[in-house]
Amino acid sequence: MKKILMIAISALLLAASVCTASAMTLNAAGATFPYPLYSKWFYSYAKQTGTKINYAAIGSGAGIQQIEARTVDFGCSDAPLSGADQKKNNLFMFPTVGGAVAMTYNLPGVRTGLKLLPSTIADIYLGKVKKWNDPEITRLNPGINFPNMPVIVVHRSDGSGTTNIFTWFLSDVSPLWRQRVGAGTSVNWPVGLGGKGNQGVAGTIQKTRGAFGYVELAYVLQSGMTYAAVKNSSGNWVYPSLANAREAASHAKIPANFYIKFTNAPGKNSYPIAGFTFMLVPKNLAPAKAAAVKSYVRWAYTNGDRDALSLDYVPLPAKLKTRILNELNRQVR
Amino acid sequence: MAEKLSRKKILSPEKIFMGMTGLFSLSVLLISVVVVYELFSASGPTFHKFGLKFLITKEWDPVQKVYGALPFIWGTFYTSLLALLIALPVSLGIAIFLSELAPAWLRSSVGFLIELLAAIPSLIFGLWGLFVLSPILQQYVEPPLSNLSWLPFFTGYPLGLGFLNAGLLLAVMIIPTISSISRDVMYTVPSNQREGGLALGMTRWEVVSKVVIPNSRSGILGAVVLGLGRALGETMAVTMVIGNTPQFSLSLLDPGYTISSVIANQFTEAFDKLQISALVELGLILFVISVIINAFAKLLMLRMNRFSRGARI
pTM of the prediction? Predict the structure, then answer.
């Protein structure tokens, strides 16, 4: 009797799982940086269209592995995959949304508005500028009385897209950084403390006098931390803001494989430390799923900007969106 | 009838029970074997590339693809050792007080509080270490310590985060483990032995040091090993306060890095296959370290038991 019951129950469960699989559901995995926005997008999209998207925010590296193994329908990564790797794994990659990185600090008596040259930021992270009253810093900030205190450099200890954008920027502005350290989601930092996640870095900076570090713009705006103005490649002092990051994105050079990088971008008010996060779709995805992915991307590009801005993300320029949608239609069938 | 009986014998509840429990115990062995095999096979690429040099290389550079385990092994050992140095005297004091000196009503309430401490998730300890302990250390504790910079243990600038913070935090986390087990072991010392000691004119202190502690030595050692195990493998709390800087330093004020922290930090966003393999090999090293420590403790306990039995006769 019990046995029969067991068989009946397992048969039912099996049937149920087959049923849910046949309804339109997309599975995705990857980057954590866009997750707050994606979950909002997925929720609204499911409500409007009935297509459900399950997203596991397990990190960009893991997302790339999952999509290479085809265990998910699309993957997401903060750092772009090189053209060669895209080709090797038959993937189509494109940006979805962007973010900016703010330079923030904890100096008693010093408010938002410290002016820093890109080369000074690089020198601090290389360990060449060690004290807050170093002439490299004081020269540009005549009104501020700097303490004779070491600069406690803070960086991300976990691999992250934020670090990738920041080290791209440092490699752009400092040949020595490019040669000695380079860029990536985690690098061999010459100096400094590591904090886990944006909240780890933000917490360390808020609690450590003399600390200096880089954090995603949203964290700085929402937690009221002090942040620096940076000189951009047009010679203007710019604050990290959505408007300034959008201007930088509009000047991005777009290669055919969408490996887009716009740190230290030209433009009058462009903020120099910003970048996109990316989505990876197999070119040979099953037709029904491919159609679902395409209509989701179209929906997100058309309806997603308001949500993005309210969560401090940088939407893509309209021209770029059109170009991506055309390519997506052509390359993923 | 006979057939029914014999069938009953084969499928007797006793036999089923034995088979099931045996299977469960076997599964533990199987899981360990699978874990070791997986760690070995996944760390193949780094093992081929760096060999044993992996253990003594100081660099960890994902951009240049050079990986070494030394700073992480050092950080793991150093923080655990510090934690043990701080936690052992405190825990023994707690255990002695609770089992020998405290009045009955205090015993149960203090004991309850200590067990409560063990139930706090490590993330909470980590947040406390980052937001409460680190500013206190940076502003009030480490500046006077850094005046002793002629000692290698106190060089460097007070950061608030680093080996000292991690060691203190780990000590707080392992005190409940060591003290509550030691207390339970001390309870089991027969009271006629204590009375014997008192009858011979021993003081309270002499009873504790000559009767209670020698009798519960192997249990205390077991408690220390359990505490050490927790300290070696602790991830979240340490990651938040150690500063995550791979370097080999004796100074308590310097930041460091532990094996479990680097795995937690870098595994999710590791792009490069070699980096993933290096992280897995670090996991294997941590596994081997815990096996060695446990085996060593087992041996020590065996020797101690033999010794104390001999002494008693």
Answer: 0.82
Q: Which of A64, A186, A200 sits opposite B240 (nearest CB)?
A: A200
Contact A173, A231 (CB under 8 A): no
Nearest C-alpha of chain B: how many angstroms from A43? Answer: 25
Q: How far, in Å, CA of A210 to CA of A217, rounded?
A: 20
Task: Give pLDDT tens digits along chain B (313 positions).
Answer: 455 555 555 678 888 999 999 999 999 999 999 999 999 999 889 888 888 889 988 889 888 888 999 999 999 999 999 999 999 999 999 999 998 888 888 888 888 898 888 889 988 999 999 999 999 998 898 888 888 888 888 888 888 889 999 999 999 999 999 999 999 999 888 888 889 989 999 988 899 988 899 888 888 988 999 899 889 989 889 999 998 988 888 989 999 999 999 999 888 778 778 888 999 999 999 999 989 988 988 888 787 776 555 444 3
Exposed / middle / buried, residue B268 (Cβ in 10 Å: 0-12, 13-18, 19+)? buried
C-alpha–C-alpha distance, residues A317 and A247, integer Å: 9
A152 in contact with B, Cβ within 8 Å = yes
Distance, first Cα to last Cα, chain B: 58
Helix (H, G, I), strand (E, B) or coil at A305: helix
Chain B residues whose C-beta sits inside 8 Å of any chain A C-beta: 59-64, 130-131, 134-135, 138-139, 157, 159-161, 239-240, 243-245, 255, 257, 261, 264-271, 275-276
Q: How far apart are CA A247 and CA A266, in angstroms?
A: 9
- Classify residue B152 by its DSSP letter: G
CA distance A307 to A305: 5
Kindly determine whether residue B134 and residue A181, on different chains, have CB atoms separated by under 8 Å: no
Task: At B133, list the tokens.
Answer: 């302990």
Q: Which residues in chain A are contacts of B158 at CB distance < 8 A?
A: none
Is residue A251 within 8 Å of A262, Cβ to Cβ?
Answer: yes
If you measure CA to CA, which chain A residue comes closest to B159?
Answer: A208
Q: DSSP strand E in A57-197: where?
A: 74-77, 91-106, 115-116, 152-156, 193-195
Cα B35 to Cα B24: distance, rounded to the nearest angstrom:
17
Angle at A47 between CA A46 and CA A50, to 5 degrees: 50
- Please tell me the distance from the alpha carbon of residue B87 to that of residue B91, in angstroms, as a whole number: 6
Beta strand ranges found along B44-135 (DSSP E): 60-61, 66-67
How close is the nearest chain B Cα to the Cα of A195, in Å? Answer: 7
Helices and strands counted in chain A (H then E): 14, 12
Inter-chain CB proximity B244 and A193 less than 8 Å: yes
Structure-token pair, residue A133: 């009253």
Nearest-10 Cα torsion for A192, B158, B68, B58: 100
Query: Interface pTM (ipTM) of the complex?
Result: 0.76
Distance CA B135, CA B205 (A): 39
Helices and strands (H, E) in chain B, number of each type: 16, 2
- Whole-angstrom distance, CA of residue B170 vs CA of residue B173: 5
Please name the residue ranges forming H helices in A208-264. 217-223, 242-250
Report the alpha-carbon distance of residue B279 to residue B259 in Å, rounded: 9
Min CA distance, A62 vs chain B (Å)? 6
Identity at A324, one-letter amino acid code: I
